[in-house]
C-alpha cells in the first residue's frame, strides 16, 4: 500500500517532468536524484506517520523539491571529485531500482537495455539526434572520463612546473590583418565576405586565449606591418643667408590657392603677404587664426619673420594654403618628434577637398531642381 | 652666519664648533635688535619682512579692489612699497593731475578724463567704440602716446602772432588718430582755448537727405540738419565763450530778421539752432567771426580747429543734384566755409586735422598717406603742414593696454592672463589698437 502510494506520487511528480523533458544526458541523473530525494523524503515521512493523504504527501514533496532546487543553485559549480562520482553512481543504482519497480520488473535483473527501453517509453522524444534524447547511463561510462583526463593532465603539468603564470602577449602594434584580397592571394582561391569575417573572428578568438604566444609564428603569417607615416616626410635642410640667419621656404596649396612662404629665424613675428601687412590682407579673424595655428602649436610665436606670397582662390583657401606652407617651412627647424606631432595634428596633410562637379539634371552638385507637383 | 659682500658665495662650513665644544647652527638670516641681518649685508630680508607685515594688515583692501574706482586704486598702489607691487595693480596706468603736466615719462600710461569734462568737451568726436567702452567701464581713460604729446608740445611752443600752423595726423587704419586728436582737444579745452571740433568731415559730403539751394549764393547748397546738429554741439562745448565774443558785423537773414553788430555770439548760435533753414549760413558767419577775432589783442582767445577726416573736404561727394549730376564739395556751403577756416590766412590759433580712410569715399582701403588720401587739390591747400605720424602700439604701450584690460576685468578668459595668451593677442592684432580692442571684446 505504501509502495503503491509512493509510485502514484512519483508518477505525479514525473508527469510535469515528462512534459518539459528536453533534457540531455543529465536527464537521467536528475530523474535519479529526484527519485532518490523523494524516496528519502518518503522514507522520512513513513517514519512519522502512515495515515496522511496523498495531497499532503505531494505538498511535502513539492516543498522539499523546491528547497533542494534552491540548494543546488547555491552550492556552486560541481567539482568532478571522487566523492561526487561515487554519489552519482549510488544515485544511478537507486534510480535503476525505482525504474524497475515502476515498470513492474525485477530490480535485480534490470539490464542497461531494459533501462533504455523504459526511458524511451516513459519519456517519448520527438528529437532526431540520438544524443539529444533523454538517457540514463552508468556514470562511469563516458560521462566524466574526458573531464577527469583533462584534470589529470593539468595536475601533471603543475607537478612539472609547466603552468607558468607569465603569459607572453603577441605584440600586434604596428601591424594589421591581411586584407581579403591578400588572403585570397595566399590561399589561391576566392573567399566570400562571410568567410573572411569568420576568419578574422576566429583569429581574434585565438588571440584572446591564454598562451597564444606559443602560436605566434602562425598568427604573424596572417599579419602585415604598417609603414611609419612620418618617415615619408621630406625635411629639407636649413639654409643660411649672408648674415648667418637661418631661413627656409615652403609652399602649400588648398582648393586652387597656392602660397609660398619664406621663414626667417630670429625675427620679431612680422608677417607680410604680397607686400602688405597680414592684418590688412586678412581682415577676418579666422584667417589670421589659421596663420597662427602652426606657430602657436609649436610654441614659436614671436620667433620667425615671414614673407608670404599667395594667389588664387578666396580668402579662406589662401589662408589654408599659407598654413600648409608655413608648416612645411617650419619642418627644417624642428626635431623628429615634433615633426611627428605636427603630422598627427594634421598640419602637414594637404586638404584634398575641392569643389564638387555640377551634375546634369541638377541645379548644383547636390541641389536638385525645385520639385513641382504638376 | 658668514658675512660676505663679494659676488661668489663662499661654501658653507660643514660644522661649527664653539670654544666650549658644542655645535652651533649655520643660518642665512638672523633677527637681532629689531633688524633682520643678511649674509650679503643688504636690507632685502628686512624689507621683505616689513612688506609681508604691511600686506597682512591691508590685505582686506586688495580683496575688495574691484569695488574701488581707478583713482582710489592708485592711491592704494602708492601706499605699497615700490619694490614689490602686486602685478594686477602695477602702476603702468597712473593718474596724472592735468593734461598740461604730461610729459615723456608718462608715455604708455593712462590718464582719466574727469567725468564733468566728458559731456562738455566731447559731446561728439569720440570714436563710437570708445564711447561704448567709456559707458562699460564707467570711466574714460586715455593712453598718453607719442603723437599727442608731440602735438601738445608744438602747441605750447608755437608763436600765435604768426599765421596758423596746420598739423596733420596720419597713420594706418585703427592706429589711434582720432584718439590722439581727442587728447589734444581735451588739452586745448583745459587750457581755455575755444575749440571748433568737427567730428567727421565725411558726414557733410554723404548721406544728406535734404539739400537746399543756398539763399546767400546761388550755385551753392545748404545742409540744414547737419549744420544745426553741429551748432548744437558747438554750443555745448564752448558755453562760456558765447557771451564774451561780440559780433563785428551785421548779418541780415531775411527781410525782417537780422543780427546787429555787437550782439553776443551766443545769440547767433541760438538763432542758427532754432531756425534750421539758415543754419548753414549761421555756421559760415560763426566761422568768419571767430577767424577775425581769434588773434585779437583785446579779449583774445586762442582758437583750435580740430577736423577729423579732413580728406573728405576735397575729393568727391555722393550727393546729387535734382538733375542727377554729382555735387562737387565746394558747392556745399559748409565745406566751402570750412576750407576757408583751414587756410592759414588768420592767426591766433592752430588747425589740427586727421586723415581718415574709414569713412572716405572712393579711396582704396590700403591708402593712408597724406598724398594718397588728400589728393592733389587737398594736398596743395593743406601744404605747408606739420605731419604727425601715428604708429601702432609699441611693446610698452601694448603692455599697458593689456594690463588695463586685465585690470578692468575686460579679459575674462583665464588663458588670456597667461604669457601664451598675450603672445596670441600680439599675433592676432599685430599691436593695432582698434583690432586689439575688437579682439578683446570677445574675451
Automatic annotation (TrEMBL), chain A:
<keyword id="KW-0687">Ribonucleoprotein</keyword>
<keyword id="KW-0496">Mitochondrion</keyword>
<dbReference type="InterPro" id="IPR014721">
    <property type="entry name" value="Ribsml_uS5_D2-typ_fold_subgr"/>
</dbReference>
<dbReference type="GO" id="GO:0003723">
    <property type="term" value="F:RNA binding"/>
</dbReference>
<protein>
    <recommendedName>
        <fullName>Small ribosomal subunit protein uS9m</fullName>
    </recommendedName>
</protein>
<keyword id="KW-0809">Transit peptide</keyword>
<dbReference type="GO" id="GO:0003735">
    <property type="term" value="F:structural constituent of ribosome"/>
</dbReference>
<dbReference type="Pfam" id="PF00380">
    <property type="entry name" value="Ribosomal_S9"/>
</dbReference>
<dbReference type="GO" id="GO:0006412">
    <property type="term" value="P:translation"/>
</dbReference>
<dbReference type="InterPro" id="IPR000754">
    <property type="entry name" value="Ribosomal_uS9"/>
</dbReference>
<keyword id="KW-0689">Ribosomal protein</keyword>
<dbReference type="GO" id="GO:0005743">
    <property type="term" value="C:mitochondrial inner membrane"/>
</dbReference>
<comment type="similarity">
    <text>Belongs to the universal ribosomal protein uS9 family.</text>
</comment>
<dbReference type="GO" id="GO:0005763">
    <property type="term" value="C:mitochondrial small ribosomal subunit"/>
</dbReference>
<dbReference type="InterPro" id="IPR020568">
    <property type="entry name" value="Ribosomal_Su5_D2-typ_SF"/>
</dbReference>
<feature type="region of interest" description="Disordered">
    <location>
        <begin position="346"/>
        <end position="374"/>
    </location>
</feature>
Automatic annotation (TrEMBL), chain B:
<keyword id="KW-0689">Ribosomal protein</keyword>
<dbReference type="GO" id="GO:0003735">
    <property type="term" value="F:structural constituent of ribosome"/>
</dbReference>
<dbReference type="InterPro" id="IPR027417">
    <property type="entry name" value="P-loop_NTPase"/>
</dbReference>
<dbReference type="GO" id="GO:0005763">
    <property type="term" value="C:mitochondrial small ribosomal subunit"/>
</dbReference>
<keyword id="KW-0809">Transit peptide</keyword>
<protein>
    <recommendedName>
        <fullName>Small ribosomal subunit protein mS29</fullName>
    </recommendedName>
</protein>
<dbReference type="InterPro" id="IPR008092">
    <property type="entry name" value="Ribosomal_mS29_met"/>
</dbReference>
<dbReference type="Pfam" id="PF10236">
    <property type="entry name" value="DAP3"/>
</dbReference>
<dbReference type="InterPro" id="IPR019368">
    <property type="entry name" value="Ribosomal_mS29"/>
</dbReference>
<comment type="similarity">
    <text>Belongs to the mitochondrion-specific ribosomal protein mS29 family.</text>
</comment>
<dbReference type="GO" id="GO:0006915">
    <property type="term" value="P:apoptotic process"/>
</dbReference>
<keyword id="KW-0496">Mitochondrion</keyword>
<keyword id="KW-0687">Ribonucleoprotein</keyword>
Amino acid at each position: 500500500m505504501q509502495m503503491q502510494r509512493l509510485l502514484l506520487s512519483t508518477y505525479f511528480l514525473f508527469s510535469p517532468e515528462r512534459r518539459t523533458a528536453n533534457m540531455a544526458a543529465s536527464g537521467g541523473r536528475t530523474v535519479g536524484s529526484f527519485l532518490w530525494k523523494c524516496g528519502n523524503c518518503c522514507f522520512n515521512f513513513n517514519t512519522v506517520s502512515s495515515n496522511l493523504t496523498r495531497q499532503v504527501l505531494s505538498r511535502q514533496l513539492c516543498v522539499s523539491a523546491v528547497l533542494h532546487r534552491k540548494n543546488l543553485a547555491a552550492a556552486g559549480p560541481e567539482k568532478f571529485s571522487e566523492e561526487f562520482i561515487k554519489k552519482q553512481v549510488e544515485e544511478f543504482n537507486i534510480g535503476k531500482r525505482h525504474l524497475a519497480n515502476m515498470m513492474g520488473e525485477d530490480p535485480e535483473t534490470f539490464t542497461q537495455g531494459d533501462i533504455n527501453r523504459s526511458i524511451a517509453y516513459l519519456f517519448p522524444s520527438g528529437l532526431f539526434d540520438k544524443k539529444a534524447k533523454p538517457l540514463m547511463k552508468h556514470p562511469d561510462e563516458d560521462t566524466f572520463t574526458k573531464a577527469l583526463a583533462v584534470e589529470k593532465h593539468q595536475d601533471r603539468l603543475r607537478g612539472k612546473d609547466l603552468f607558468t603564470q607569465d603569459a607572453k602577449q603577441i605584440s600586434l602594434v604596428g601591424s594589421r590583418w591581411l586584407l581579403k584580397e591578400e588572403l585570397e592571394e595566399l590561399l589561391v582561391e576566392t573567399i566570400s565576405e562571410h568567410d573572411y569575417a569568420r576568419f578574422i573572428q576566429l583569429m581574434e578568438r585565438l588571440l584572446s586565449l591564454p598562451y597564444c604566444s606559443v602560436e605566434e609564428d602562425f598568427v604573424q603569417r596572417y599579419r602585415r606591418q604598417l609603414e611609419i607615416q612620418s618617415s615619408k616626410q621630406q625635411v629639407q635642410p636649413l639654409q643660411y643667408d649672408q648674415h648667418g640667419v637661418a631661413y627656409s621656404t615652403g609652399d602649400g596649396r588648398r582648393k586652387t590657392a597656392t602660397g609660398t612662404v619664406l621663414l626667417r629665424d630670429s625675427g620679431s613675428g612680422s608677417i607680410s603677404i604680397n607686400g602688405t601687412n597680414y592684418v590688412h590682407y586678412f581682415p577676418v579673424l579666422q584667417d589670421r587664426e589659421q596663420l597662427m595655428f602652426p606657430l602657436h602649436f609649436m610654441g614659436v610665436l614671436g620667433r620667425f619673420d615671414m614673407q608670404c606670397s599667395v594667389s588664387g582662390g578666396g580668402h579662406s583657401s589662401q589662408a589654408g594654403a599659407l598654413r600648409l606652407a608655413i608648416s612645411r617651412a617650419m619642418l627644417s627647424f624642428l626635431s623628429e618628434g615634433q615633426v611627428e606631432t605636427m603630422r598627427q595634428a594634421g598640419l602637414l596633410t594637404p586638404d584634398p577637398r575641392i569643389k564638387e562637379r555640377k551634375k546634369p539634371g541638377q541645379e548644383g552638385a547636390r541641389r536638385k531642381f525645385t520639385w513641382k507637383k504638376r | 652666519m658668514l658675512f660676505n659682500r663679494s659676488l661668489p658665495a663662499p661654501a658653507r662650513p660643514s660644522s661649527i664648533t664653539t670654544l666650549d665644544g658644542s655645535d652651533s647652527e649655520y643660518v642665512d638670516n638672523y633677527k637681532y635688535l629689531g633688524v633682520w641681518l643678511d649674509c650679503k649685508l643688504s636690507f632685502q630680508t628686512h624689507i621683505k619682512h616689513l612688506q609681508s607685515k604691511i600686506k597682512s594688515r591691508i590685505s582686506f583692501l586688495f580683496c575688495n579692489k574691484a569695488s574701488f574706482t581707478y583713482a582710489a586704486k592708485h592711491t592704494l598702489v602708492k601706499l605699497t612699497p615700490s619694490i614689490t607691487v602686486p602685478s594686477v595693480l602695477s602702476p603702468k596706468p597712473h593718474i596724472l593731475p592735468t593734461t598740461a603736466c604730461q610729459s615723456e615719462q608718462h608715455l604708455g600710461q593712462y590718464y582719466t578724463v574727469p567725468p564733468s569734462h566728458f559731456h562738455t568737451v566731447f559731446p561728439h568726436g569720440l570714436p563710437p567704440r570708445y564711447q561704448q567702452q567709456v559707458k562699460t567701464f564707467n570711466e574714460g581713460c586715455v593712453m598718453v602716446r607719442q603723437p599727442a604729446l608731440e602735438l601738445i608740445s608744438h602747441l605750447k611752443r608755437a608763436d600765435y602772432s604768426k599765421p596758423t600752423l596746420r598739423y596733420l595726423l596720419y597713420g594706418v587704419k585703427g592706429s589711434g588718430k582720432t584718439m590722439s586728436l581727442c587728447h589734444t582737444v581735451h588739452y586745448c579745452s583745459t587750457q581755455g582755448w575755444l575749440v571748433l571740433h568737427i567730428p567727421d568731415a565725411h558726414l557733410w559730403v554723404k548721406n544728406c537727405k535734404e539739400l537746399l539751394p543756398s539763399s546767400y549764393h546761388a550755385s551753392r547748397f545748404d545742409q540744414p540738419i547737419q549744420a544745426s546738429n553741429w551748432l548744437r554741439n558747438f554750443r555745448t562745448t564752448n558755453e562760456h565763450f558765447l557771451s564774451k565774443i561780440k559780433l563785428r558785423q551785421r548779418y541780415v537773414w531775411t527781410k525782417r530778421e537780422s543780427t546787429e553788430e555787437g550782439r553776443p555770439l551766443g545769440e547767433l548760435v541760438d538763432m542758427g539752432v532754432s531756425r534750421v533753414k539758415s543754419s548753414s549760413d549761421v555756421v559760415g558767419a560763426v566761422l568768419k567771426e571767430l577767424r577775425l577775432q581769434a588773434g585779437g589783442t583785446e579779449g583774445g582767445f586762442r582758437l583750435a580747429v580740430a577736423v577729423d577726416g579732413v580728406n573728405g573736404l576735397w575729393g568727391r561727394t555722393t550727393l546729387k543734384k535734382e538733375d542727377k549730376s554729382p555735387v562737387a564739395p565746394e558747392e556745399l556751403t559748409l565745406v566751402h566755409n570750412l576750407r576757408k577756416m583751414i587756410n592759414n590766412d588768420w592767426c591766433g590759433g592752430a588747425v589740427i586735422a586727421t586723415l581718415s580712410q574709414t569713412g572716405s569715399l572712393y579711396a582704396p582701403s590700403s591708402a593712408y598717406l597724406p598724398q594718397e588720401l588728400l589728393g592733389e587739390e587737398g594736398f596743395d591747400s593743406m601744404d605747408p603742414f606739420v605731419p604727425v605720424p601715428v604708429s601702432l602700439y609699441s611693446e610698452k604701450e601694448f603692455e599697458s593696454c593689456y594690463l588695463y584690460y586685465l585690470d578692468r576685468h575686460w579679459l575674462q578668459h583665464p588663458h588670456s592672463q597667461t604669457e601664451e595668451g598675450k603672445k596670441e593677442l600680439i599675433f592676432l592684432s599685430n599691436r593695432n589698437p582698434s583690432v586689439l580692442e575688437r579682439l578683446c571684446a570677445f574675451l
